Amino acid sequence: MSDLTDAPKSRMTFFLTSKAPARPSSLQILTGFAGGMVSISILAFMAGHYHVPLIMAPFGATCVLLYALPESPLAQPRSVIGGHLLSTFVGLAVFHLIGHGVWETGLAVGLAIGLMQFTRTIHAPASADPIVVFLASCPGWSFLFAPVFLGSIILVAIAFVVNNIGAGKNWPKYWW
């Protein structure tokens, strides 16, 4: 009986004593700030200047991975570009071929996650791309090119510059 009464105490102790990860270095924090600001600002400027859609909400989350966790497999070009393209394609395909209801939205996200795993292009922010497609009431197949493909390429290009500033930097770990 004492095991049952001790369980809440042990859970509470875990939550109070578990440690957060170490704070990143000041340089890494500055890189995250500058990389995210520059990336999204460039996409927004280009979108306005050239009248081409180049920005969508999941790109903000992509910047977190590119600049705060650049060593992560989820932050490598293969995952950024491939994940966004695949997930958006799935969203568009489900919208056009099956429909655009509640279950179809869930199906598209689930399929996107499964296909990213299968193709080794996992990029967490890309799992939101089918939702973007459905919320926009299906922006059309050209959405794959702009903002998805062009935006992903621009983000990776900027990350290549930002993440390689300084001695000993070597990003990405692999391209494709």
Automatic annotation (TrEMBL):
The chain crosses the membrane at residues 27-46, 52-69, 81-103, 141-162. Residues 23-172 form the HPP transmembrane region domain. Keywords: Membrane, Transmembrane, Transmembrane helix. This is HPP family protein. It comes from Bartonella choladocola.
